[in-house]
Design goal:
The chain is an all-alpha fold and about 400 residues long. Helices cover about 60% and strands about 0% of the residues. The chain has one domain. It comes from Streptomyces agglomeratus.
Length: about 400
């Protein structure tokens, strides 16, 4: 309570609700710092907290090294699998590796995305962040990829924001998934509902290509599963016995993939078509949806079991995986448009496949660096304060802070 310059008393506005920390570790630290989760009741220390200066930079959020490591390693696997596509013909071993990686690399990334979307609601700030962090990058890179294809390969390629091309499908899918998060969190059994939707999509060939809805719906259960996970679930898969058990599981998976490589169609792993569209009966879509979901979860658990939980040299790169994902596609497609693999057929030999694997791993690592992230922040993390109305409550709170500073 203080005396305003015009002579009347005005009660201060209630303090802003603290944002949920980004990681489980940060959330625990925040709860401990404020007295929650202990036997003693929280002390009323908020009134003694100094008022921050307007425009002051807030303290950076604590990041969990485990999730940054997982995101970086997953995006490296995504890039490697994309680079294997033009060189794996005639190589049964490479095709088997491709099948194994495609079984879990995007499910793992989507599960982590769902886990970090648990706090999403339809508040003003969350919607603004969804627009600037997902929708705007989608528009920019969908346009950029289309122009790149027109310049390099197909002058008649048209720009269509309703028909995602190549890598951009993930952005529009993430936009839809995150926007529907409150719906899934309000359901009593969201995962069975999401699986039922995925099954229906896998047997419905007339869904169409708009917004790549086949992938949006068929990958939906992984996002919903991420919403349901808690920190203790990730601690379970990181136990020593799980790490040891993951070794024979992955070895058996590799052997099975080597046997199945010439027999199994790759269309199942893309989740972009109904079963009828890839030449299978409708009931195969039902079977493969549940079979791939189970296999993906097992392999994702094995992958997460091997992800280091401590800070590594690549931990800092986990914050730049969006750049690695969106930019490496220009390298992969550019190599194809330049007929690189036809000009140098040795790239399809075992030694060449190793070379392109290492090359794309190094390239995507560089694309995840803070330097590249800062360079492309205008496209991937634009501020865009000019595009949104100011929150009247926040404006009043800032005026109150300035008045308190002047009064002191």
């Amino acid at each position: 309570m203080f005396h305003a310059p015009h002579g009347y008393q005005r009660a201060p506005l209630p303090p802003a609700r603290e944002q949920e920390p980004e990681t489980p570790l940060a959330r625990t630290a925040s709860a401990t710092a404020h007295g929650y989760g202990t036997d003693a009741p929280p002390t009323p220390a908020r009134a003694a907290t100094p008022v921050p200066l307007p425009g002051a930079t807030p303290a950076p959020k604590q990041r969990d090294a485990f999730f940054d490591n997982a995101k970086y390693l997953a995006i490296v696997l995504v890039a490697m699998a994309h680079m294997w596509e033009p060189v794996m013909d005639g190589s049964r071993a490479t095709r088997a590796l491709y099948i194994v990686v495609y079984s879990f690399h995007m499910p793992a990334f989507i599960i982590i995305s769902g886990y970090f979307s648990r706090g999403f609601d339809l508040s003003r700030k969350k919607l603004q962040r969804l627009i600037t962090g997902v929708a705007v990058p989608y528009v920019i890179f969908e346009t950029a990829y289309t122009l790149f294809k027109r310049w390099a390969d197909d002058p008649d390629q048209s720009i269509s924001l309703l028909d995602p091309w190549y890598l951009t499908w993930f952005l529009i899918a993430l936009f839809v998934w995150r926007l529907t998060t409150p719906v899934w969190q309000s359901l009593r059994h969201p995962l069975p509902v999401a699986l039922a939707i995925a099954v229906l999509a896998s047997v419905t060939p007339n869904i169409g290509d708009d917004l790549n809805l086949q992938r949006v719906l068929q990958f939906l259960p992984y996002f919903v599963l991420g919403l349901l996970l808690k920190p203790e679930h990730f601690r379970m898969v990181r136990r020593r016995e799980v790490r040891l058990l993951a070794v024979p599981v992955v070895l058996c998976t590799l052997l099975f993939a080597y046997w199945a490589a010439p027999r199994l169609g790759l269309g199942w792993f893309y989740h972009s078509s109904a079963s009828q569209q890839i030449g299978a009966p409708w009931w195969a879509g039902v079977v493969m949806t549940f079979a791939l979901f189970g296999c993906s979860l097992i392999l994702t658990a094995c992958f997460l079991a091997w992800v280091p939980g401590r800070r590594m040299w690549f931990t800092v790169l986990g914050a730049g995986t969006l750049g690695g994902y969106l930019l490496h596609g220009f390298l992969v497609k550019g190599a194809g448009y330049a007929n690189l693999f036809e000009t140098y057929p040795w790239l399809s030999t075992p030694l060449g496949e190793i070379f392109v694997t290492v090359a794309i791993a190094v390239a995507v690592t560089l694309l995840c660096t803070p330097f590249v992230r800062r360079m492309f922040r205008w496209a991937m993390e634009p501020e865009m304060n000019w595009a949104f109305r100011r929150d009247p409550v926040e404006n009043a709170r800032q005026r109150e802070r300035r008045s308190l500073i002047r009064a002191s």
